[in-house]
Design brief:
39% of the residues lie in helices and 20% in strands. It is built from twelve helices and 15 strands.
Length: 381
């Protein structure tokens, strides 16, 4: 998928994106927002109405002449299926054109499972989703932990010893389901989902930090995901926060994942208390104010904040959204710590402030992001 600098690849896409973000909206307002001639907008709207992607939803207030007809996305004009393949759990959703989840299913994760079993399980869920849809299914989005090899459709490191590290998930699912498959890393998929469902327009720059087992960032610039040359931009979990720190499997030392990721927090809690709890249990305890749990979660948040200062200095976003199961509990600790650190240490803090907030923490967040990859293709063909 290739997008222009403004994140919109065609007249039709630009019109649809404004209707998505601003609707209900009139044709005149679409023309003003896009800079397109009214005749071009009228033709694009005619096509979108014919495809059932857009509908007329009444009239606006009169400004002295005839009230203008308002346009909005037609939720049931089409659907996208999204699948997220995670270590411990996978999820599949059916989403309408607005990104609303219509149906969902969960599967076991990829850890220890052969590729054929994974594909078969996802294919069964996808078939059920297609049976529910009462309009065309536009494609299948697939979100996986990075790094990815987009041309070959593989998740190349999950880890390298995984039996499906070189297995083409894209090819296998296209062959099994007959759907076009859009592959991306989970953090970028979640960022696209936030763009599509959060009412964002194509101005500005924001990043979504996604924490599950690892930590990654999805970056949206002018309405388009920034992917880098190989589709692997945003691997901020491998920003080093300690040059003399422990070695990481990536080949670097002192990566922030080694201090901030859930496994690191579990190990730190066990070291401090002598008790073994899951990350979710530790975060829940921190949320309740248990001192030991709050201490180790705060250490995770401080490490993540240190990495995000470097990240923000390079990317210069206007907001950072925290998403994923890693922020399902004790999110306020992360938001407050990161906000405080950015306010104090970001290089351009006198020019603008970065707003930090939470986004989706549901186990379906990644799958909805994957479905949004397909929907976003409508505005960036």
């Amino acid at each position: 998928m290739t997008a222009g600098v403004n994140g919109q690849g065609s007249t039709r896409g630009r019109v649809l994106d404004v209707i998505r973000a601003a609707g209900p909206v009139s044709r005149v307002e679409v023309s003003q927002a896009t800079g397109l001639a009214q005749a071009s907008v009228t033709e694009a709207v005619k096509e979108l109405l014919a495809d059932d992607f857009v509908r007329e939803v009444g009239r606006g207030r009169s400004t002295g002449g005839r009230p203008r007809t308002l346009l909005a996305l037609n939720p049931s004009g089409g659907y996208a299926i999204g699948a997220q393949l995670g270590w411990s759990r996978s999820a599949v959703v059916l989403a309408d054109l607005t990104g609303t989840v219509v149906a969902s299913a969960t599967e076991d994760g990829a850890d220890g499972r052969p590729p054929e079993s994974i594909v078969a399980g996802l294919a069964e869920d996808i078939a059920r989703m297609r049976g529910i849809a009462d309009a065309p299914v536009l494609g299948l989005g697939l979100a996986v932990p990075g790094p990815i090899d987009t041309p070959h459709g593989t998740a190349v490191q999950l880890p390298e010893s995984s039996p499906w590290a070189d297995f083409s998930l894209t090819h296998a699912l296209e062959e099994t389901t007959g759907l076009r498959v859009v592959l991306d890393n989970d953090a970028t998929a979640v960022a696209v989902g936030e763009y599509w469902t959060g009412g964002s327009d194509s101005s500005g720059v924001f990043a979504t930090v996604y924490m599950e087992i690892g930590i990654g960032a999805g970056i949206i610039v002018g309405g388009a995901p920034f992917r880098g040359i190989s589709g692997n931009a945003g691997e901020m979990g491998h920003i080093s926060v300690d040059m003399a720190g422990p070695p990481c499997h990536c080949g670097n030392r002192g990566c922030v994942e080694l201090f901030a990721a859930p496994a690191a927090t579990e190990a730190r809690y066990a070291s401090v208390t002598g008790r073994s709890l899951s990350y979710a249990q530790i975060a829940e305890a921190a949320e309740r104010g248990e001192p030991e749990a709050l201490g180790v979660v705060s250490t995770s948040a401080e490490a993540l904040a240190a990495a995000l200062v470097s990240f923000a200095n390079v990317v210069d976003p206007d907001r950072i959204l925290l998403a994923g199961p890693g922020f399902a509990h004790a999110a306020d600790v992360y938001v407050d710590t990161i906000q405080r650190r950015l306010d104090a240490a970001m290089f351009v803090r006198r020019t603008h402030r970065i707003a930090v907030r939470t986004a989706g923490s549901s186990h379906l967040t990644g799958a909805l992001g994957a479905a949004s990859l397909v929907l976003h293709d409508l505005v960036t063909p």
